[in-house]
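dumping this here so i dont lose it
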């Protein structure tokens, strides 16, 4: 699955903090200086950033790994002019180390989670800055590893189900790639809302998905979902186009039109569904692009986690210096839940 297929279509600029003269000290980080395979990820010293007036400086404890990370690393998204230094990583969980001059609502020492802006410097580092609008207080009931698994996938699932899909209690939702990063959080959010949840995945994920709330499981390898699913209100399509799980790119999306009820909506996080095809079936279609980060939504997600409604599944944890191994794993696809980089040992 690919929650950030459209992030970013263009990286307008990559700031090398060492050229800004605004750095206090140094830190360890994983950077790329050219595009390519996992070997271009380099664990090295990098300038430590300073927060702008509306930013937090976060001492990173953990950083989530998303499909967009390796796609950016490989140059599939866009290409920066050389030379460049880019720290990857959107998901972050850590402790507030310093505050910008206009920041309110946070204090030094607060545990926070959110999304980093990789154009300024991503989360594969010991320190990262993030806007107050892109951060919230970390759920108290989980550690930094679990919190770092949440922002991208939870914000994406929320946007698909509730902002675009307007999912409500009693409605029926079909979630493709239901065991993946976005999928397994979407399942839990839909169940919290009171929806009937149908999930597609490979057979090895059936028990896992039933445990987290799927009402009806479909093994996509043995069953044609479009032959048995009908009258769905919302379809969440998140099958990664870079992984060979379809006969042709977009196959799952194309097969999903007929399962929707009249007026239903197909929402894809990987491609732009055809408006002409949607009209033909009497349904709606939307492409959810990069999740719009709202601290209020992150706060709601944290409350749901603390209330036991949402729990991220951690597939594998790697030390920061082993980011290459993390990228090799996520690039294979079929990952259940999330892969996370541990930046510092912590039980907070």
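and the seq i came up w/
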């Amino acid at each position: 699955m690919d929650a950030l297929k459209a992030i970013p279509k263009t990286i307008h600029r990559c700031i090398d903090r060492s050229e800004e003269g605004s750095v206090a000290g140094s830190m360890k980080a994983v950077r790329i200086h050219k595009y390519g395979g996992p070997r271009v990820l380099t664990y090295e010293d990098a300038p430590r950033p300073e927060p702008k007036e509306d930013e937090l400086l976060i001492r990173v404890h953990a950083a989530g790994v998303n499909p967009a990370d390796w796609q950016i690393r490989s140059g599939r998204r866009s290409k920066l002019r050389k030379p460049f230094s880019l720290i990857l990583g959107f998901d972050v969980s850590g402790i507030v180390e310093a505050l910008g001059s206009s920041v309110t609502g946070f204090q030094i020492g607060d545990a926070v989670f959110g999304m980093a802006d990789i154009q300024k410097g991503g989360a594969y580092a010991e320190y990262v800055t993030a806007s107050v609008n892109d951060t919230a207080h970390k759920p108290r009931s989980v550690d930094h590893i679990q919190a770092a698994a949440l922002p991208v996938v939870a914000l994406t699932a929320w946007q698909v189900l509730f902002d675009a899909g307007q999912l409500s209690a009693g409605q029926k939702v079909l979630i493709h790639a239901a065991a993946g990063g976005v999928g397994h959080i979407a399942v839990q959010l839909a169940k919290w809302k009171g929806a009937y949840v149908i999930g597609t995945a490979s057979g090895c994920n059936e028990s896992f998905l039933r445990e987290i709330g799927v009402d009806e499981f479909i093994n996509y390898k043995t069953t044609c979902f479009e032959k048995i699913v009908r009258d769905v209100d919302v379809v969440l399509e998140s099958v990664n186009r870079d992984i060979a799980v379809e006969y042709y790119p977009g196959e799952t999306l194309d097969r999903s039109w007929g399962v929707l009820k009249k007026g239903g909506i197909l929402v894809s996080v990987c491609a732009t569904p055809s408006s002409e095809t949607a009209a033909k079936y009497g349904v709606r279609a939307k492409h959810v692009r990069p999740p719009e980060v709202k601290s209020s939504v992150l706060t709601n997600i944290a409350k749901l986690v603390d209330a036991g409604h949402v729990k991220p599944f951690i597939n594998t944890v790697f030390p920061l210096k082993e980011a290459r191994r993390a990228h090799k794993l996520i690039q294979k696809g079929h990952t259940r839940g999330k892969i996370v980089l541990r930046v510092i040992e912590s039980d907070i």
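The mean pLDDT is 90.
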